[in-house]
Amino acid sequence: MSDPVAKKPLGVLLAGGLARRMGGGDKPMRAVAGRTILDRVTARFGPQCDGLVLNANGDPARFAGFGLPVVADDVGGFAGPLAGILAALDWAALHRPEVETVASVSADSPFLPRDLVARLEEARRDAGVPLACAASEGRTQPPIGLWPVALRHDLRHALVVEDLRKIDRWTARHGCAAADWAASPYDPFFNANTPEDLDEAERIARAHQDA
Q1: Cis peptide before 185 (omega within 30 of 0)
Q2: Do 120 and 146 contact (CB within 8 A), yes or no?
Q3: Which residues, at least 6 apart from 60, have a Cβ–Cβ distance to it below 8 Å?
Q4: Tens digit of pLDDT for each residue in 5-58?
Q5: Cβ neighbours for 110, distance < 8 A, ≥ 6 positions apart
Q6: What's the rounded Cα separation, in Å, for the pair 82 and 207?
Q7: What domains lie within the chain, and their CATH numbers?
Q8: Where are the alpha helices (DSSP H) in the chain?
Q9: Which DSSP category does 6 fall into?
Q10: 31-32 and 35-36: which strand pairing?
Q11: Residue 154, helix vs strand vs coil
């Protein structure tokens, strides 16, 4: 069981990608069964965290209706999810200095587990390592994880000085536990990258009332 008095992390919704396979635009703003994916993500993930921020690049006004701080990457060249995670760690250090960890999720994943943070925390504590990521049927989901704010300077060095982009390479330096979920009746880490994925998400949402 996870520690009931553990501090909740700050949550970051990673929406900084270019959405090339979707034809551009903001994937989290696409609708699934009458609700935007971003609505679904915040509803499932928000209660697990001590506040949320949205990592997105470009004009933040397009997300104004969600009432979330929008934090852009400050590492150039679309450096991937690690840049969004770093942006959230830096934001937490500046604006929420009491926060010790940040939990990250992909903002285009509409079916996230409602026990995500608790199980990630349990996994890293049991393994005695500082980091944890999610997995489904043994397949890791590196952008979905727990990140200590104290490692932000090391992460910045890896991104800026070493030009490191692969999440697994960086997490392996510090130790990362995996918390595994079943991928049936649907994968809780399913993400909508293509129009066909949106059709599949619609099918899942209509077939499973809890989705």
Answers
A1: yes
A2: yes
A3: 70, 72
A4: 468 999 999 997 554 444 456 889 999 999 999 999 999 999 999 999 999 998
A5: 32, 37, 40, 41, 190, 192, 201, 205, 211
A6: 34
A7: 10-207 (3.90.550.10)
A8: 37-45, 81-95, 116-127, 152-156, 167-174, 195-207
A9: P
A10: antiparallel
A11: helix
- Residues 41, 13 contacting (CB under 8 angstroms): yes
Amino acid at 86: L
Cβ count near 202 (within 10 Å): 16
145 contacts 59 by C-beta, under 8 angstroms: no
Single-letter residue type at 23: G
Residue 118 tokens, joined: 């608790």
List 35's β-bridge partners, or say none: 32
**155: amino acid identity, one letter:** L
CA distance 136 to 138: 5
Q: For residue range 154-199, what is the model confidence (pLDDT) as tens digits? A: 999 999 999 999 999 999 999 999 999 999 999 999 998 888 999 9
The three-point CA angle 205-133-121 to 5° equals 100
Q: What angle do CA 11, 108, 15 make, to 5 degrees?
A: 60
H or E element: which one contains 146? strand 139-148
Burial class (CB in 10 A: 0-12, 13-18, 19+), 119: middle
Give the amino acid at 130: P
Continuous segment of H or E residues that includes residue 79 = none
DSSP code of residue 114? T
Which own/partner pairs from 196-203 qualify as long-range (CB within 8 Å, at least 24 positions apart)?
Answer: 198/30, 198/32, 201/32, 201/37, 201/110, 201/111, 202/32, 202/33
